[in-house]
C-alpha cells in the first residue's frame, strides 16, 4: 500500500489522501463536523480496509476545505454532498470494482442523504456514530431520508452515544429497506478513539463487517456513467 495526495479542481474540488491498494474495490471516507480527513479513527479504518485490498480516499468535505476548524453550516450541506459525489467519481476512475461510501457522524449523515438520492453511486454505506438527533433532543430526528435508502448499510455505534440510544438506532435501521448490520461497542460518540484511549481492534472489525455486508447483499448496480468507463 502507498499513499498519494489528491487534489482535483472542480466545483466543489476534491482534496484528500488516497491509500492505494492492489484490489479493485474502493472506499470514500469522510469526517465529522469537528474533524478532518486525518482524524485518527478514519486513518486507521482506511489502513484496515486497504490491508484487505481496497483503495481508500480519505477526503475533506467542502466546508472543511474552506476553514481548518469550526462546524459546518446547514446552508452548506448540499455542497458537502456534492463533494462526496465528486470524490466517488475521482476514486471510481482508479478503483474499477465496487465503490463504498462512509463517514463519521455529520459526514455519515451527508453520505446517507446522498445515497438516498442516488443509490447507484455506491454498493454499501458505512455510518460511524450516525447522529440520529442532537444530544438531549430525541424529538428532533434526522431519519426521514432513511426510508429512501436502498443501499446496504453498516452502522458502527457506541452504546453511550448521546446522539442515539441503542433502541433509537434499531428503529432507524428498521426504516431502511436494504440489508443493514451493526458493530456495537461500549463507547461514546468518538467510538472509543479519544486522545486518551482507543480500541485497537475496531478498525479491522469495521473493515471486515463492511466487506461482509457487501458480499452478502450485493447492492445496487453501478451508475450508467461508471459502467461506460469500465
Which helices and strands occur, and which strands form pairs?
Layout: E1 2-8, E2 14-20, E3 26-30, H1 40-51, E4 55-59, H2 62-66, H3 77-92, E5 99-104, H4 106-117, E6 124-128, E7 153-158, H5 166-175, E8 180-185, H6 202-217, H7 224-229
Parallel strand pairs: 3-4, 3-5, 5-6, 6-7, 7-8
Antiparallel strand pairs: 1-2, 2-4
Helix pairs in contact: 1-6, 3-4
Q: Rough shape? A: globular
Q: Total number of β-strand segments? A: 8
> Which architecture does the CATH hierarchy give at level 2?
3-Layer(aba) Sandwich
Q: Output the CATH class name.
A: Alpha Beta
CATH homology superfamily name: Alpha/Beta hydrolase fold, catalytic domain
CATH-defined fold name: Rossmann fold
How many angstroms separate the termini?
A: 23 Å
Order of helices and strands: EEEHEHHEHEEHEHH
Give the mean pLDDT: 92
Q: Treating each run of at least 4 consecutive H or I residues as one helix, how many helices? A: 7
Strand order of the largest sheet: 1-2-4-3-5-6-7-8
Total tally of structural domains:
1
Structural class: alpha/beta
Kindly estimate the percentage of residues that lie in beta strands according to DSSP: 15-25%
Low-pLDDT residue intervals, each spanning 5 or more residues? 219-230
Gyration radius (Cα, Å) is 16 Å
Assign a percent range to the helix content: 25-40%
Quaternary structure: single chain
Main sheet record: 8 strands, mixed
Amino acid at each position: 500500500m502507498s499513499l498519494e495526495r489528491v487534489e482535483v479542481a472542480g466545483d466543489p474540488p476534491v482534496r484528500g489522501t488516497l491509500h492505494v491498494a492492489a484490489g479493485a474495490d474502493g472506499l470514500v471516507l469522510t469526517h465529522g463536523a469537528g474533524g478532518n480527513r486525518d482524524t485518527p479513527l478514519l486513518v486507521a479504518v482506511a489502513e484496515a480496509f486497504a490491508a484487505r485490498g481496497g483503495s481508500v480516499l480519505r477526503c475533506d468535505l467542502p466546508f472543511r476545505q474552506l476553514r481548518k476548524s469550526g462546524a459546518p453550516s446547514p446552508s452548506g450541506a448540499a455542497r458537502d454532498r456534492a463533494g462526496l459525489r465528486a470524490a466517488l467519481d475521482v476514486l471510481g476512475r482508479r478503483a474499477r470494482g465496487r465503490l463504498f461510501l462512509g463517514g463519521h457522524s455529520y459526514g455519515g449523515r451527508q453520505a446517507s442523504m446522498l445515497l438516498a438520492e442516488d443509490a447507484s453511486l455506491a454498493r454499501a454505506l458505512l455510518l460511524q456514530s450516525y447522529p440520529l438527533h442532537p444530544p438531549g433532543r430525541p424529538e428532533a430526528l434526522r431519519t426521514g431520508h432513511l426510508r429512501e435508502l436502498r443501499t446496504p448499510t453498516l452502522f458502527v455505534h457506541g452504546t453511550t452515544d448521546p446522539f442515539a440510544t441503542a433502541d433509537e438506532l434499531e428503529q432507524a435501521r428498521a426504516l431502511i429497506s436494504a440489508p443493514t448490520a451493526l458493530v456495537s461497542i461500549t463507547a461514546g460518540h468518538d467510538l472509543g478513539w479519544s486522545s486518551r484511549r482507543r480500541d485497537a481492534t475496531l478498525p479491522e472489525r469495521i473493515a471486515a463487517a463492511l466487506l461482509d455486508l457487501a458480499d452478502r447483499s450485493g447492492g445496487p448496480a453501478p451508475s450508467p456513467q461508471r459502467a461506460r468507463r469500465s
